[in-house]
Amino acid sequence: MKKLCLYFLVMFLALSFIVPAMAESEMYQRVMSRFHGELEQGAVVQVLENATSIELGYAQQLIDAFNAAYQGLGVSAKIMDIDQYSDLATDGPYGYGPDVWYQANDILMKYATKQHLLPLPIFDLECYPHTPRDAWDAYKMVMYDEPFFCGVPINVQSGMLFYIESMLPDDWQTQWDLNQNGMPDFFETFTALYAYSKAVQENGGTTKYGYLDDLVDVYFSFGYLFTGGAYVFGSDDTDPADIGLAKGDAAKCASMLRQWAALMNNTEALDKAFASAAYSYLAQGTMLCTITTPDVKQMFVRAMINTGSWTREEAEADLKMIPVPRLPKSYDLTGGPWQDTITDMDNLTTQTIMMGGMNGFGISAYTQCPNASLAFIQFAASFPQVMERNRMLGISPARGDAAAEIGKDDATVQMMFDNLDNNLIYIMPAINEMSQLWTPGESFLIDLCTDAFRSSRGEPELYTTIEQIQAALERMVQQILDAIFTLS
Q: Using one digit for the tens of pLDDT, what is the confidence trace for 57-93?
């Protein structure tokens, strides 16, 4: 905890040196002129929250709390009944878009760079000194040779491994804890997880599968590429002409995804719809573990309760969320004894880098109530509301004071911040060109993982060598470049 506190103190001191210069800039004052602090009387702030927040009731709680706090001040807020992936560029100019939008930084920033989102006076916000620079930088853009920020970070997102403790095999402490550290070996290295999953599928166990997942989701699976030295864009993710997804040992790391697909032998691994089924699969014992983001923790809890086998308190205690295992430096999940990756972990494995992001709030450039909208965001980013969002959804806060408080009882939050601090979370680039990554990336993953099924279908396999995977990565990179510089 001392490390966490020191981290935020350093961030605050570093930021304090840049605030005065920007705050005194004439251009900064001009850009921020819409935010004068006077609430637009009669304004109803239209808020677009994410689907999970709405489904689990937090979004309505936030709205109700804001309306109660601002009762008598002439403004209120309401949830917009539109899709969470609204097209602000299309809807905003005609008055159909939200005033305030909660989304991942890469989605918000693709609108910011096209001036559909307002730069915000973040230095005036109560949450500003409590939030690290890395979180703010996820919403940074440069205009008139000055940095501006178009979002307020609420929570850190990255892949975490979920499992139910009561579904661990009875012999895990004697057979799967070689280093006697109280953590199952198969949650420490992917090599051990592969070995355990193989054993379960061949011989049976407490669950049908060990690890089961959707392997074609770019957000999670590209962590393999990043661990091998790949990157999205050059120059600190600001140069879209330099795409590094085929660089380093990305192809060797990608080959492990094909190994997983072959072992799982389940076409659900090729379908992004798996995400919606994962909650019940974990609760019903179809699989022991899977990887997803912290903000859906309560979806697993609800699925567990729905089986009738857990009370809420029991489900909360039984469900575990931990960092993803380490990857083998050999780039081969099947080669060599899995035990070696536990007894010689530092030499034979490396920590996995996961793609991540910052979820937060932005304000539409088309809003008629920027000051009321900013008041709503300030309320949503306050310590009590971030704590409540954690309680109801399980998010990892971007606020340092909230993270420190939650970290007293939940070590996962500390782990998330440690991963961010140690560059083990690759924050999605905050430039418009990021939007061109997803479709070619997903197509590559589908083609690669489908290869594990081609032989059984009587089709020729396409990716049996690293060279073939490298060529596929390079084709994907070219497709992204074409989408950015030619097709657009």
A: 999 999 999 999 999 999 999 999 876 667 777 777 7
Report strand pairing: 319-322 vs 287-292: unpaired
Q: How far apart are CA 131 and CA 148, in angstroms?
A: 16
Q: Could you tell me the domains of the chain?
A: 38-157+357-431 (3.40.190.10), 160-355+433-485 (3.40.190.10)
Furthest-apart CA atoms within the chain: distance in Å? 71
Distance set, CA 274 to CA 3, 154, 319, 406 (Å): 37, 26, 19, 30
- Pick the residue with more confidence: 35 or 25? 35
Q: Evaluate if residue 7 carries a pLDDT over 60.
A: no
Task: Give 165-213 as a 3 state SS string.
Answer: HHHCCCCHHHHCCCCCCCCCHHHCEHHHHHHHHHHHHHHCCCCCEEECC
Please report, for the chain, how many H helices and E strands are present, in that order: 24, 17
In angstroms, the CA 381 to CA 392 distance is: 15
Predicted local confidence at residue 488, as pLDDT: 53
Q: Three-state SS for 276?
A: helix
